[in-house]
Amino acid sequence: MSYKIPMGPYHPALEEPYKLDLICTGETVTDAKLHIGFNFRGIEHLAETRNYIQVIALMERVCGICSNIHTLTLCQAMEGLTALTPPPRAQYIRVVMAELERLHSHVLWAGIAAKLMGFKTMFMTCFELREKVMDILQAISGNRVNYSMNRVGGVNRDIDDPQAVLKMIDALEAEMLRTVIPIFTTSSTARSRCAGIGVLTHAKAISCGVVGPVARASGVGQDIRKAAPYAAYGEMEFDVPVQPDGDVKARLLVRALEIMESCKILRQALSKLPPGELFVGDGKFDFTKMVTTTSTSRVEAPRGEVMYSVSWKEGSRNPARVHVRTPTFAVMPAIRWMVLGARLADTPLIQASIDPCYSCTDR
Amino acid sequence: MNMTTALARLLIFPGLLFAIPGAWFILWVERKAVALMQGRIGPPFMQPFFDFIKLLGKDTPPREGIGGMLMKAWPLIAVSAAAGAVGLLPVLPSSGGFEGDLILLLALLEVPSMCIIAAGFSSRSIFGEIGSAREAVLSVSYNIVFLLAILSIAASQHTFSLETLAQLPASPLRWLGVLALLICLPAKLHLNPFSLPNAEQEIYSGPMTEYAGPELAMWELSHGLEWVAATGLVATLAAPHVTFGWLAILIFVAFSFGIVLMLSAVASATARLAIDTTVRFYWQVTLIFAVLAISSALFMRFRS
Predict the structure, then answer these.
(1) Partners of A151 in the beta sheet?
(2) Which residue of B37, B39, B272 is in closest CB contact with A117?
(3) What number is the average pLDDT over the span B161-166?
């Protein structure tokens, strides 16, 4: 006998509203239907009613976890419109912020994954670590969620004391190596819940067009930071972790390794921070002199590739269109293939293993 | 045991009057211990009592027909059975008891679990039904080990009387039995890593999903009483026997407390296992203890 179990839009396993209708036979999932759009706020339309500077503040609020990535991509797209190049110090500070945000996002995800495995102690450990990352972000920007660091042509705030931040990062890395990473890679209950479930094969990953850590866990070695370096990523040395298995354990491992790579990048960026200006120009944005009508920018967010496309409207203070494409939107259709044949008990963990962000997706 | 002492044991000590605050205390210890291990503050001392009173004061939507009546009845049956089980525990030395009360205790301990299964199906909620199915599978798995452990203890010491078992010196086989009982307790009390029937992230609270108000309060109470009865059973079998009344109670409480702390530590150090892993775990453990129990029973029979 098959029956339908609705997961969501409000469910203890989901951080944000979306709906997965699971058709089950016994404890096995035989089909799944995905519904999104419960969190639509019309931000892209709102962006058309704001001027270029106000749009930055607006887009910072698309997502609470990767708020910096959204403004970074938007500012890069707008810099493309006006042919501005941020000074080197700004580029480095952007890298530092982006990597700290990746750390914060991955640790948060690890906590959520632990909670979905019923491992609440691990959840608390992860969230304590996340608190420390947020302390660093607060020490740099003065904010814990919306950092408002980016502006067109540079950044708003300087990192006055890179050595102090470096010390915090050393402490953080030691803590990660001591707790989160060994527990996720060696704990037997965690392994029994992760290995071999929610498999997305290499071929399926390519045909679904998944991005970010999900793609890298299925053996697709793509990372915008390497493939099309932005900000100061071209000057950083780091590896892109790739795992071939495509199961939840591989996704866990990819993110755990990315945490270590992020620490590596942070250490390089902070120790090589070049002197100089924080932004170009006098802080004014001349919307009458555009070099092109549409500019796009791509950035590797914690969840994968984010793309912004900004179109100029002649004689207007507002952009004609700000288009956003978020990684979760690209990865979501793959959930259906991951849960087919899975146990019902594993579905919350499988859907969470893509690190979904509906706030970004629905906007 | 005559009628008066039986009633006194059921209603006063170690029955309801003692067991209900005991249940709240154990629930608090478990929640507080887990919280401290997870780096949280945890609930205040009176919280389980407050929860109970608050739930009692709530109205529940009326349910009609047999289903509604059954949903009201299951928690009451569960509480009565669990209280009866606690009442049988020989906390005070030479407090009575009868040959075979161990079997009655096991039967009464099983009733709340069956009530939970029935309640999930009566509620007609999909989450309740899945939770009940999981509880049923789990109960079939761990009960084999649980019953065989008790059987091996009883067979090795020639008695089904709790009082006599508590007084006899422990044999090595009894320690094996106690170990097997401890392995079963997390599943019996729905703790990690066997907290499948109420896996919040998958099926909300499973069989309890449709329950609210006083009925939920009764479920909470029966859960607490199950804690007292199950930890009490292990404490009875494991604690050293003393004849002095107050000391016996103290040792009993200390052992129960230790078992609660141990179970909380296991619960906070593990992730939830999936149903097939759980079943495999219990059936593998079963095999060892089945052989031990049967061989010990045969051995004792030949010797006597």
Answers:
(1) A154
(2) B272
(3) 79
